[in-house]
Amino acid sequence: MPRFLSRRGFLFTGAAVGGTALVAAVGGVGYLATVDMDGPDGFVDGNRAVLNAFVAVHADGRVVIQAPRTEMGQGIHTGLAMLVAEELDIPFDDLISVEHPVEQLAVYTNYAAPLRTRPEDAHGPVMWAAKRALGLLPLMNTAGSSSTMGLWFPMRIAGAAARHMLVTAGAARLGVPVGELTTSDGFVHHGASRRSIPYGALTRDAAAVPPPREPVLRPASAWRLIGRSQPRVDLPGKVRGEPVFGADVVLPNMLHAAIRQAPVFGAGVARLVNAAEVRAQPGVIDVAVIDGRSVAVVAGSWWQAEAAAQRLDVQWTRTEADGVTSAGLAASLHAALDSDDPYIHLAEGDVEAGFRPGAARVVEATYTAPFLAHACMEPMNATVIIHGDGAAEAWCPSQSPLFMRWGVNRGAGLANVDPSSVTCHITMNGGAFGRRSEMDVVVQAAFLAARHRGRPVKLMWSREEDIGRGVFRSHAAARLRAALGPDGLPIAYDARVAAQAMQQSAASRNLPFGNGGSARGDRFTLEGLDKAHYSFPNRRVRSQHVPSHMPIGAWRSNGFSFNTFFAESFVDECAAAAGADPVAYRRALLRDSPRHLAVLNRVAALAGWGMPMPPGRGRGIAIEEAYESVVAQVAEVTVAADGEVTVDRVFCAIDVGIVVNPDAVAAQMEGGILFGVTTALMSAITIEDGAVVESNFHDFPMQRLRNAPEVVVEMVPSDLPPGGAGEPGIVPVAAAIANAIHAATGRRLRSLPLAVTETIGERRTRSVLRENAA
Amino acid sequence: MVSLTVNGSPVDISGKDDKPLLWVLREDLGLLGPKYGCGVAQCGACRVLIDGESTPSCTVALGAIAGASVVTVEGLARADGTLSVVQQAWLDEQVPQCGFCQPGFLIATTALLAHTPRPTDAEIDEAITNICRCGTHPRIRRAIHRAAAAQAQG
């Protein structure tokens, strides 16, 4: 494995790549605004020329692209490869292969998610310092719908720089000026002499060319790939059953491990009653307590390990949470809505004035949402080996190689082993949704690897461990009030939410330093509640952190997943109170937000809003801005006399900025909508005696084909830089469904899930509105 | 000892009669296409064809299927590598997202089309009960219809 040692590097300014003037003097404002492309110089490795941290060209013409984000089904490897291929001027065909890099380089840092800004827009000394700090780690993670946003410039710059190096090498080879050369389809052409050289023949020379300081990016008018659907690079293998997910990692001499963790979070192992009996089970070579908190069984096969683990008799320590129930936790949320010390996130104008007696009509409602599990199809797993020389190597479908590295160090440390180095391999990933931003399973696997030094240990959780012992999206409750003016539109909007903060909980488990700061004002509790795009003259948004023993983690769209349900249901209630059509009402509220209004109008037209519907059927709409994209959806539902609810169709319009791979964006909307329909109708994690009740897909059910709505997606043309696509699709679904149920039945449902799941046969279910359920 | 035919090749396995077929395939035969997703025949990621029937392999003991012919996702393509009509339809419709559950859907659809060459939506709903967390459902339905049409054209 070549090491990227040289750091001659190259820098590009955001301004220059944006098309304006030149690079400002080093140290000036321009420098502070750079897109930092500091990476390796070109070097030759066998038949391969590594031209920079993202692009390697082989002598046979193959191009290997390093895509420093986890492919977890969102198609990011395809999108990032398209950006490189666009500028490198190569066809998008099977000569391109895409890898997640093994090296953890600063140039691969995710700036967009933690800084909440596009790297090219991160100006000024504070941002410069923050970028330097993140780059030192470096923070590599796939989260917050940030991958295309954050790599929109770097991937194209990498492609353009590599093309420049190839063209420069071609000019030298042909003895002509660079300016006389063109490229297409992986060739350098000299038109005057009708000579062409394939890139593969130039690799050795190109690697020695200094990277350009200011590569010129193609104008949008010259794009061949961006905006045109390209087939996903990972799908040919996936339809053959070929890709190696973390669960499929096989290494020589490998051991397998299964695990049992405390049912009540925070409890530990008081006594392992039958260790000897379990150790005597077929194939078992070790029964180990990890950090006093869980028990692992190590065997020659996972089936043996899991079968033996099922026999474990563990007495867990008593904790203060032993008596906790969902009802008690919900009561704590509602109490928090009355707290006299809320965090004030936003206070615009004089909200209280709107609510003075006699001043206006007041609409008020309280909403709730439950805890949720992720239930990724691929169960949690990690494989770790600590070699005899102390070097550690890990394979995991992680969302963050940084957290993986920290996890290996922490887990080995629990066994008093200090790895001399940690090499992280990000495998294909069977769904993540935020769950694999946790290092838990890596820590456990590394501990076991340290006990069995020299042998790889693959730890996989059972589905029951995954659903009942993992991390969760917080439950939440919100109270919203609005004072309506004479025109029926809100004069004042007052929203407060109570939930358990995510960032602090996740940081306390995953960061080696500190606890992530205050839980007060957690942005993942608040996002989606301010409805900034609506013109409310007076607006107040407040939150309250409600701690519990439950571990809270990232979950696809986080606060949006409940707040948009709350706020967009509430706006519908306001429209009803005003006697207004929900779309017309929102149009009035979006009078100062043309981008949002265009999306709203688009989805209304797509859905045929206003066309009459038969009795028992209804349409509902919701809109949100999330991850720099604007998304609106219309759900069509049927509610039968017995309360069975079916989501028939969902229409989705999204302004995601410039679309890189339209079919991949459509797939993310479809997937987000299906994920959101499951969540809205079916999903709840409940707590009894401090422990999660649900354990597998029979009691944490999913939409199956039978229940799945038809989905229609349209992208609104936009010339804004790309926004996020992985999460916005889920955001408006629940509110759109609740609003549709209201339209169909006149009933306003304010608690998620909206329905209970009834079994109607083997692997067949139906959803029945909660108040109709037996 | 249990004798089976797996993806057209005969195999003999000793001393594992109680082991679920899924784990025999994955751990003893190195066929990693069938996945563990739930262990209780709920999700369908482990589905394989057993004598042509789509079956969740996580709850079938090896000893119960002596002499059977088993086909996994790895056995769907022709020997020369040509994709089956179902696999090709999956690719044409760009169905998979994470792809972890898709081997089970490909198997279940292959079995469905063998019994019911032109399934209606209702027949698809009845037959395909697998779980996909990524939400590829709309594309799966389209791909099934596409595969059925391709199969009808021969």
TrEMBL record, chain A:
SUPFAM superfamilies: Molybdenum cofactor-binding domain
SMART domains in UniProt: Ald_Xan_dh_C
Limits of the Aldehyde oxidase/xanthine dehydrogenase a/b hammerhead domain: 240-320
Organism domain of life: Bacteria
Cited Pfam families: MoCoBD_1, MoCoBD_2
Name of the protein: Xanthine dehydrogenase family protein molybdopterin-binding subunit
UniProtKB/TrEMBL annotation, chain B:
Residue span(s) of domain 2Fe-2S ferredoxin-type: 1-76
InterPro entries in the cross-refs: 2Fe-2S-bd, 2Fe-2S-bd_dom_sf, 2Fe-2S_ferredoxin-like_sf, 2Fe-2S_ferredoxin-type, 2Fe2S_fd_BS, Beta-grasp_dom_sf, Diverse_Oxidoreductases
Keywords: 2Fe-2S, Iron, Iron-sulfur, Metal-binding, Oxidoreductase
Family matches, as Pfam families: Fer2 (PF00111), Fer2_2 (PF01799)
Transmembrane portions of the chain: none
UniProt protein name: (2Fe-2S)-binding protein
Organism from which the protein derives: Plastoroseomonas hellenica
Signal peptide: none
